[in-house]
Design goal:
The protein is of the alpha/beta class and 327 residues long. The chain folds into two domains: 152 residues, Rossmann fold, CATH 3.40.50.620; 125 residues, Riboflavin kinase-like (Elongation Factor Tu (Ef-tu), domain 3). The protein has ten helices and twelve strands. α5 crosses α6 and α7 runs antiparallel to α8. The longest helix is centred in the C-terminal third of the chain and has 21 residues.
């Protein structure tokens, strides 16, 4: 998969694709169905398969003071999109100038002149252009005028008639239900980042941890989780069973928000390494203990519980995604 951080001046191999458009935050089962429809059309027309997405997320641009909400920052999003068989990922920078573009100009400048899109696939509620004035009806009319096809996908629901929704996934994660979130995502929800240089207190009680900043990720429920911890090496990721705490560590700190991960049976140096942490089970809420001995006892219990859960359900293909090539 090629990642293109512009939509103008493209070479011939990057134009003429069948293109799905959206934010794709989470790359959940609804997004996967949208890309699947796009893939079918691309195959039938003998065209490349592309996705056009926006960074930063428009919500971040319009509400910069809002609480962190992202399910999948660009790197993680690209991993999951690459796993769907994309040929081209177009990343459109979203800023004040782009937000001010009228709907008609977006179609003419980006979709026609820039991408030379052969066919465009969107969700039923897709809106575009300044003040979101463009809708599916306008896109279809402009498509006919410019000579490209348009397909709008109806809402996609699970077996209980629940619509696959990024907002609903956020609710599940905020309520400590990573399993239900994974059911809508079609994969485990991950937090990734570089391992920070911490206070090394975990070593002193026998449970060394790798600490990650949550950055602009959604804040899941604070507490302890059974997780899969992936150590990234180039395009490869090596996965380990682990236990993690998300929160402010009330027993030893109480203020600093961190994701702390203890990898089972691992002895290497992780400082500065890139980790992917996939949440599988919520074990318990974060709590304050009466000293380090009580904390150590509880961590040992958490480790036993996490090991049992993870060993009973080995990691399988599809729960996590591979890596794309950028260029």
């Amino acid at each position: 998969m090629r990642i293109l951080r512009h939509t103008s001046g493209l070479d011939a191999d990057a134009r003429g694709a069948v293109v799905a458009i959206g934010n794709f935050d989470g790359v959940h089962r609804g997004h996967q169905a949208l890309v699947g429809q796009t893939r079918d059309i691309a195959h039938s027309e003998g065209a490349p398969l592309g996705v056009l997405t926006f960074e930063p997320h428009p919500r971040s641009f319009f509400r910069p003071e809002g609480a962190p909400f992202r399910l999948t920052p660009l790197r993680t999003k690209s991993l999951h999109l690459a796993a769907l068989g994309l040929d081209l990922l177009y990343v459109q920078h979203f800023d004040a100038a782009f937000a001010a573009i009228e709907a008609e100009r977006f179609v003419a400048d980006v979709l026609v002149q820039g991408l030379a899109a052969r066919h465009v696939v969107v969700g039923y509620d897709f809106c575009f252009g300044r003040q979101r004035k463009g809708d599916v009806g306008l896109l279809e009319r402009l498509g006919r005028a410019h000579g490209f096809g348009v397909t709008a996908l109806d809402p996609v629901r699970d077996t209980s008639a629940e619509i696959y929704s990024s907002s609903l996934i956020r609710d599940y994660l905020a309520n400590g239900q990573p399993g239900r979130a994974a059911g809508l995502l079609g994969h485990l929800w991950e937090i990734d980042g570089r391992v920070l240089d911490g206070d090394k207190r975990g070593r002193t009680i026998g449970f060394p941890t790798a600490n990650l900043d949550l950055d602009d990720y959604l804040r899941p429920a604070f507490g302890v989780y059974a997780v899969r911890a992936g150590i990234v090496e180039g395009d490869a990721t090596t996965w380990h069973d682990a236990v993690a705490n998300v929160g402010r560590r009330p027993t030893v700190d109480g203020t600093t928000l961190l994701l702390e991960v203890h990898l089972f049976d691992f002895t290497g140096d992780l400082y500065g390494r890139h980790l992917r942490i996939a949440l599988t089970d919520f074990l318990r809420p974060e709590q304050k203990f009466d000293g380090l001995d009580a904390l150590k006892t509880q961590i040992a219990q958490d480790c036993r519980q996490a090991r049992e859960l993870l060993e009973a359900r080995p990691l399988h293909a599809g729960e996590v995604a591979g890596a794309p090539h950028e260029g």
